[in-house]
Amino acid sequence: MTDIPAEPKVAEVDPARTDNVVLTGLLALPALFLTVLSLVPLFLLLQLSFAHHDEGGLWTPSLELTQYAKLLNPLFLKVAAFSFTLAIGTAVVSVAIAFPAAYFISRMRRRAQVTWLVFLLSTLSLSEVLIVFSFQVLLSGSGAMVKALMALGLMSSAHSLYPSFGAVQACLIYVVLPYIILFLYPAVSQLDDDIPAAASTMGASPVWTFLTVTAPIVRGPLLSAGLLVVIWTVGTYLTPLVLGRPQNWTIGIQISNAAMTTGDLPLAAAQAVALVSLMVGLLGLTRWLSGSGSVEP
Amino acid sequence: MGAAGLAATGGLLAACSPKAGGGGASGKLKISSYGGNFEQAMSEHVYPVFEKATGIQVESISQPSGLQFLLQLIEANKAGLAPMDLCISTMIDVGRGRKADLWHIRDPKPLTNLGNLPAQYVAQTDKGIDGVGALGWFLAFVVNPDLVKPIPDSWTALWAAGNKDAWGLNGGAGLLYEITAKTYFGGTEILDTEDGILKVLGKIAELKPNTKLWWDSEGTMQTALENGEVKGGVYFADVAATLKANGTPLQIVFPKEGAVIDFGCWCQPKSSKKIAEADAFINFMCTPEAQELIARKVNAPPLIKKELLNLTPEEFAKVSSNVAPIDVNYKARGLHLDFMATRFNQMVSS
Questions:
Q1: CATH number belonging to the domain at B3-136+262-319, selected among 2.30.30.40, 3.40.190.10, 3.30.450.20, 3.10.420.10
Q2: CATH of domain A68-192+219-291
Q3: Is the preceding peptide bond at B150 cis, omega within 30 degrees of 0?
Q4: In this predicted complex, what is the ipTM?
């Protein structure tokens, strides 16, 4: 009798232990990567933001709040507000374009779908530098866009369309759009076609069905896509630098000015810490808002 | 010192220099300079003459401009691994490197040609010399002659009415401070105090309606000039000359108040042990022969005194001007760089 319970006990413990070992082994590498590649630099950034900046030199280790006090000037706050407005604007427009695009691509025949996806993937190989300078040529006074607008009678005299807020916004949307379409594609391709069909049997128009039935089902992925765009674009640097006026400059440019022009690396670090904190705050707020008053997780 | 004298020094140096790995009897010097046209012209036209004169072999490396390079060099030097024996550094970075104990302090004795350089092109502290002027570059007034008539001869044209959105100007606490101070405030000394800086900045702010582009990277301004997006502005004279040679309609003007001359210094990281070879190179670069090569082949303004140079007026006019240049006020930048940059950024983005 005493032998019998002993056997299953051994058999029970062993696989679980093996599973744990395998799991730990599998997780060790990503955990190590996360620690080394994200937490360590973040810690160094924090440390640098408390350092002392030597005028005409670089910095000396210290523990002072001088740099954070400098962040409270109206210019930095204005630039921070602008950066977030720009990023949220980019998110709203790009998701609004990407969602129907992904939906219609997912409803195409297999071959057309593959063609579209390959095309979108191949546009990802263009670097932001290339895109921004192409926009500069496209929007210049002698560029194709201005010529087209003149031919259509929408523009009376040839003048370039940059530097301007519109140029910055358009270029950012262009840069993120393929990512967002590809991001939304899996979610929309799994949508059950019977649900909109049911809605239309009950008399809803296709547009109405799309807006009131289909879109709410994929609310989660849409929100994630929007947040992803905000995270990507809030720190944007090159696009506003090349296509914007100084009024359209973002925190990224402020950080670069502090670090590279004045050599004030502690201030640049403090600005970067502020940017990361604001971003974390925004993510927290979104999670809280989407968590309350919603049945979806 | 003539070429024969140089050759003799070089021979001597080569004989007593430590042997580099895989090197022969002569020493080897790794020299970095700004990548692109400049580094190419130096390695094609200047280094071979030095190698022939001294027997010291030069390995040319290209270096980026900007603070990032300095930060990497400081770290590499701490580890005893500076990737070159000599590099070019702007005066601001010479100062930053000095505070980080980066540069070797030179003994002036072997630098027999140092007297050829005007004193402002030698970076010196109480401890000694840590940078010697390598080459200059001008920031001049460039205009598209198809769009700007008549061709201006003064910086005041930047402020003139009727030029709305015409110019591309140097942003980021750049040399507009010097241009404005010289043009409207009698000289760059006004930048020595914060009050003076604010007065000059007030005048720069009047340029905002006429400015379409505040450029930081020269590539941005290049595209704007090539596309006719700006009618002109403030730009590097040597890059503008290259653009002009490639067909961009450009006129390079050295205004009557002077163009701004900025310059880089030869600096040696402490972890480099090739002191004698570096001295020989710096001494060579201060000779009229080397400076003439810089003017003729590298298209950069020579830094040594003009009377020592054997350049034809045409050769001289191609890279420089008889109008006295405006020197960058490095003293002001050492004391007030943060203030100048912060206020400048506030001014342009408000």
A1: 3.40.190.10
A2: 1.10.3720.10
A3: yes
A4: 0.78
In angstroms, the separation between the Cα of residue B321 and the nearest Cα of chain A is 29
Closest residue in B to A60 (Cα–Cα): B100
* B263, containing H or E segment: strand B260-267
Tokens of B115: 């007297």
Structure tokens at A263: 């050599």
- Asked if B220 has any chain A CB less than 8 Å from its own CB, the reply is yes
Of B171, B223, B342, the CB nearest to A136: B223
Q: Does B68 touch chain A (CB under 8 A)?
A: yes
First CA to last CA across chain A, in angstroms?
50
In the CATH scheme, what is the code of domain B138-261+323-349?
Answer: 3.40.190.10
The answer to whether residue B147 neighbours chain A at the CB level (below 8 Å) is: no
Asked if A137's CB is within 8 angstroms of B223's CB, the reply is yes
pLDDT in tens, chain B (350 residues): 444 444 444 444 443 433 333 333 358 999 999 887 889 999 999 999 999 999 999 999 999 888 889 999 999 999 999 999 999 999 999 999 999 999 999 999 999 999 999 999 999 988 899 999 998 999 999 999 999 989 999 999 999 998 999 999 998 778 999 999 999 999 999 999 999 999 999 999 999 999 999 998 888 899 889 888 899 999 999 889 889 988 999 999 999 999 999 999 999 999 999 999 999 999 999 999 999 999 998 889 999 988 999 999 999 988 888 899 999 999 999 889 889 988 998 898 88
Residues of chain B with CATH 3.40.190.10: 3-136+262-319, 138-261+323-349
Taking alpha carbons only, the member of A131, A28, A81, A30 closest to residue A234 is: A81
Alpha-carbon distance of B31 to B39, in angstroms, equals: 10
